[in-house]
Amino acid sequence: MKEIMAGESSSAKQGVPSFEYNPAPPRYPLLYELYRPLDELENLLLDEFAGQTLTMEKVYNQHQVGKSYIKKNYKQALLKLEQQGKIIVDQPASKRRKYKGEITFGDQVEITFLPK
Asked: What is the tens place of the pLDDT at every residue in 33-72?
C-alpha cells in the first residue's frame, strides 16, 4: 500500500514521498529545501545498524515501519553510503545488476554497517 500511496503524493523530497498534498508556498520555497529526508535516512541507518550485517530486505523490513520511506529510498541511501565507504557490501557494485542504468541493491545483498 505504501508504494501505491507514494505514487500519489504531491511532493517527494529527494524521492521520499510526503503522502499528503501540501505544496510549498511560492513565497517560502527555501524553507522546504532545507529538509533533506534521504540524508536523514542515511544517518538513521548508520545509527541503528552500526556494527551489524543484514540483507537489504531485513534493513528495509526492520526500519520502515512507521516511516514515510519506501524501498527505493533505502536502496538510494545505501548506494550513497557505499560510495562514501560507510558500509561494506558483499557483492561489488560491478557484479550487481543495473536498474534503469543504475546499480542497485537486490533484496538478498548483505550489507555490513561499520561500527561507530
From this structure: 446 788 899 999 999 999 999 999 999 999 999 888 999 9
User: At 92, is the pLDDT very low, low, confident or very high (cuts 50, 70, 90)?
Assistant: confident
d(CA 116, CA 51): 8
Q: How many residues make up the chain in this entry?
A: 116
What gap in Å lies between CA 19 and CA 63, rounded to an integer?
18
Question: What per-residue string of b and e applies to 60-71 under the rule 16 or more CB within 10 Å gives b?
Answer: beebbeeebbbb
Please give the model's pTM, rounded to 2 decimal places: 0.70
Cα 46 from Cα 41, distance rounded (Å): 9
Report DSSP state, residue 69: -
